[in-house]
Amino acid sequence: MILVRDHIAQLIAEAIHIAQKKGELPSFELPEVPVTRARDETFGDYASPICMTLARVARMAPLAIAQRVLAHLPSAPYIGKVEAAHPGFINITLAPQWLSQQVEVILAEGERFGQVDLGKGRSVQVEYISANPTGPLTVGSGRNGVLGDALANVLAAAGWRVQREYYVNDTGTQVELFAASLYARYAQALGRDEPLPEGGYPGSYLVEMGHQLAREYGDRFLTMERSQAITALREEGLKRMLASIQADAAALGIHFDNWKSERSLYEDGTYSLVFNRLSAGGWLVYRDGAVWFTETPHRSSGEVQGEQPTQAGAKDGTDKDNVVVRSDGRPTYFASDIAYVWDKLVTRGFDRAIYVWGADHQGHVPRMKAVTRALGLDPDRITIILYQLVTLKRGGELVRMGKRTGEIITLREVIEEIGADATRFMLLTRAADSQMELDLTLAVQQSSENPVYYVQYGHARIASIFRYAQERGFSPEGGDVRLLTHPAELALIRQMVRLPETVALCAETLSPHHLTHYAQELATAFHAFYKDCRVVSEDAGHAAIGRARMKLVQAAKIVLANTLRLIGVSAPESM
Questions:
Q1: What is the DSSP letter of 178?
Q2: Could you read off the pLDDT of 348-390 as tens digits, one per residue?
Q3: Taking all residues of the chain, what is their mean pLDDT, rounded to a whole number?
Q4: pTM
Q5: What is the third-level CATH fold of 4-94?
Q6: Handedness of CA 558, 564, 565, 571 (dihedral sign)
Q7: Please, what is the angle between helix 50-58 and helix 4-21, to 10°?
Q8: Contact in structure between 569 and 421 (CB atoms under 8 Å)
Q9: In the chain, what are the domain boundaries?
Q10: Could you report the per-residue pLDDT of 23-77, keeping only the tens digit for each?
Q11: Would you place residue 400 in the very low, low, confident or very high pLDDT band (cuts 50, 70, 90)?
């Protein structure tokens, strides 16, 4: 379906061309016509500032341009009032008759309402959470997961073929420290005086896991050679941590299509392939026993060169030297990321790859773009969304540690305290790059101050209307939506028809937080309608408008449910 805003832009462009042909506007190349929702509803539903953009090339006042454009604006069934407003805006108000007919459109489309075809069936992979499997998920990982999962929902609704992936960092220094820490906790559980390794993981979750392993396996791993035992415990520990992570994600309503092993990139030859490709292109240099990636390619001899690497603060914008292989021969995380981007875009052939990372990875973004270009790929095919971490509060007081362990606050603890719906909705109320405060006290309040309660209550209230109507033998059958002319009815429909454009906005900007704001505005419009317009009445004279309003609330229920589904929140029938 074509979006109303895009259709309006086409009509304005057509009107400008007509005015040019008639000599009322000079000849000039027309830029893209911007059309947005009007910020002030008193000015209409849509506004375009295009005439102010054209003032210089047309050598005319913006208001005069707008008046000449509107004189040739083609008609459309959804266009009601049009006006040229100072200093040169074109304002358009949707026709009430068209608005009322959209109730029937929504009822006919049902769960499909809100879907748009921006992706045209192209493929996109959204990779999110991807926390190291060395500890439980934190509330910060929860924000990562909610952003990624809601974005995947939006992209699917916008016509993309979406794969959701968790990248498992199952190799490298941190995994080895995790394994050594688990060995120490396992040995301690069996009474051996085994210290934690330097830089190891001190969390109580490993103490619990060590006791579990001791109960299940006895001293089996203590009878092995130490390095062999640590390797075996690494696999056992990773398996258990991933199961825990999977359970935590599922508790938040997150399920992945694929769990991709970092180790597999080395085992299947992907790492060797990209290393050789970069080396042949002159993108790798050698110094102090290590191999570095540089943005300035050297001669292509098929071998790693001996020149100086890109240094910190160089034009790639990174804040660290780009080491690919350490002096001891171990590849860095950057090496894995190089192999991983090739795996995404070439081996598996996704049209786009979207990463959701914490803001502390900001310095890694430009070098990921640079290395993608060095591999001969379009860097615009990858997008990295950076999100700020989460501050937890309870009743205005900062929460610094978990109740159960007195250590880090886990995602599971937050879900158990406020519920999955509140966790998802609240973590999606701010843009990814904004600081996030999650008030645990507010999240469980049953009041209009709690946004998730306020929105869900709207859906439950509609369900209660239908139960009340059914008890009295009242139904929407035969309802005539042309009777929907009350300002509160039209205001509600205006919000309902915004869903496709909200989905498009979220998909175009990769910003799913717009959904929660839209949901609150839609709920506000419904609650106002409920206050001003009685739906079910025993008055015989009310029957016709009552049936029409039943259709309206039925459509509103569909739009609310579709919006909550995109957010990943339930649509309750009662509260």
A1: H
A2: 999 999 999 999 999 999 999 999 999 999 999 999 999 998 9
A3: 93
A4: 0.92
A5: Gyrase A; domain 2 (3.30.1360)
A6: negative
A7: 20
A8: yes
A9: 4-94, 173-252, 451-567
A10: 999 999 999 999 999 888 888 999 999 999 999 999 999 999 999 999 999 999 9
A11: confident
- Give the strand pairing for 123-127 and 258-261: unpaired
DSSP string, 179-196: HHHHHHHHHHHTT---PP
CB-CB contact of 388 with 357 (8 Å): no
Could you list the beta-strand ranges (E) of 304-450.
323-325, 352-358, 382-387, 390-394, 397-398, 436-439
DSSP string, 144-166: HHHHHHHHHHHHHHTT-EEEEEE
Alpha helices in 38-136 (DSSP H): 50-58, 62-70, 96-109
Task: Give whole-number Cα distances, 473 to 107, 118, 467, 477, 555, in Å.
Answer: 21, 43, 10, 11, 20
Q: End-to-end alpha-carbon separation of the chain, Å?
A: 35
User: Helices 62-70 and 50-58 sit at what angle, rounded to 10 degrees?
Assistant: 110
Decide if 59 contacts 26 (C-beta within 8 A). yes
How would residue 306 be classed by pLDDT, with cut points 50, 70 and 90?
A: low
Give dist(CA 292, CA 306) in Å, integer: 10
Residue with tokens 């039925």: 554
**Assigned fold of 451-567:** Isoleucyl-tRNA Synthetase; Domain 1 (1.10.730)
Provide the pairing of β-strand 161-168 with 258-261: parallel
**Token digits for 162?**
């979406």
Provide the pairing of β-strand 46-48 with 89-94: antiparallel
Count Cβ atoms within 10 A of the Cβ of residue 39 and give its class: 0-12 exposed, 13-18 middle, 19 or more buried.
exposed
User: Quick one: tokens of 338?
Assistant: 């190089």
By the 10 Å C-beta count (0-12 exposed, 13-18 middle, 19+ buried), 167 is classed as: buried
> Model confidence over 201-213: pLDDT tens digits?
998 999 999 999 9
Of 529, 531, 518, the C-alpha closest to 569 is 518
Q: How far apart, in whole angstroms, are the C-alpha atoms of residue 104 and residue 550?
A: 12
Nearest to 500 by CA among 149, 163, 106: 106
Q: Which residue has the tokens 């069996």?
A: 190
C-alpha distances (whole Å) from 108 to each of 111, 112, 564, 574 are: 9, 9, 19, 25
Integer CA distances (angstroms), 400 to 390, 397, 462, 479, 490, in order: 11, 9, 40, 55, 47
Q: Which of 36, 43, 45 is nearest to 9 (CA)?
A: 36
Count the Cβ atoms, other than its own, within 10 Å of residue 320: 12
